[in-house]
From TrEMBL:
One of its GO terms (biological process) is nucleoside metabolic process. Belongs to the PNP/MTAP phosphorylase family. Gene3D superfamilies: Nucleoside phosphorylase domain. This is Purine nucleoside phosphorylase. Pathway: Purine metabolism; purine nucleoside salvage. Transmembrane segments: none annotated. Its EC number is 2.4.2.1. Keywords: Glycosyltransferase, Transferase. It comes from Poritiphilus flavus.
């Protein structure tokens, strides 16, 4: 069961390491870890040293929090996130969001790698998430003592901050970066979808599919943290021309697109 004492111990450990009042929290998705090289005067804390933190078990998620300055703002960056498919529950997956909030963040940036359900979007494109569909079969707010941490019933009519979305669209236009917009659907995984499942997701109104982000966004809304989220589209989910999945290719496409995502996030930080 999640307790305030656990969060306080995690936060105290990080403060003692020098994590001093970060303004922005950033979650980096699969193949999207290079932003940490942009951080000035970094301080690292490995997940396995932070009290009550889960451990990242996916080989391409490195598993550390990094604190420092980016475009003159204090940031704390999750290099490696947690997923339900690793065997964690919703509370584990979202624990770092609560810790970053206790450290002091006022905004949350999220990135992920996703598959393009909307076939007018191509691999290597980026998509600004405007809304989402939760198909993970649970909620990170569905626990007995949730009222100790905020309202039990959280409004989700506008889960992604309209002001930051508008700003990042303007930045993309100025920088001549293609930025799609759409609905992200989150599934459990780790298996990829069948042809029939891709057809179903399209009918539901999804533009992209992935295995993360939605629990983090729900908790951020619980904490009243404004969020902006961008998906890097790493494969095309065409049920009529579906090819066997190539994880290495997905990671390679995420890495190729990452510099554009970093540019968007850095320019957005400048405006805050």
């Amino acid at each position: 069961m999640l307790t305030q004492k656990q969060l306080e111990e995690s936060t105290t450990y990080l403060k003692n390491r020098g994590f001093d009042s970060p303004e922005i929290g950033i979650v980096l998705g699969t193949g999207l870890g290079k932003m940490v090289h942009e951080i000035k005067d970094p301080i690292e804390a490995h997940y396995n040293h932070i009290p009550f933190f889960p451990l990242a078990t996916v080989e391409f998620h490195s598993g550390k929090l990094i604190y420092g300055k980016l475009e003159g703002k204090k940031v704390v960056v999750m290099q490696g996130r947690f997923h339900l498919y690793e065997g964690y529950d919703h509370t584990d997956v979202t624990y770092p969001i609560r810790v970053m909030h206790m450290l002091g963040i006022q905004k949350l940036f999220i990135s992920n790698a996703a598959g393009a359900i909307n076939l007018s979007y191509k691999k290597g494109d980026m998509m600004l998430i405007e809304d989402h569909i939760n198909l993970q079969g649970g909620s990170p707010l569905a626990f007995k003592n949730v009222a100790e941490f905020g309202d039990r019933f959280v409004d989700m009519s506008e889960p992604y901050d309209p002001e930051m979305r508008k700003r990042i669209e303007e930045i993309a236009e100025q920088e001549q970066i293609t930025l799609r917009k759409g609905v992200y659907v989150s599934v459990v995984g780790p298996q990829l979808e069948t042809k029939a499942e891709y057809r179903m997701l399209k009918v539901l109104g999804a533009d992209a599919v992935g295995m993360s982000t939605v629990p983090e966004v729900i908790v951020a809304n619980h904490l009243r943290l404004p969020i902006v989220a961008v998906s890097v589209l790493t494969d095309e989910c065409d049920p009529d021309n579906l090819e066997p999945i190539n994880i290495q290719e997905i990671i390679a496409i995420a890495e190729q697109t990452e510099p554009k995502m970093i540019k968007l996030f850095k320019e957005l930080i400048k405006t805050l």
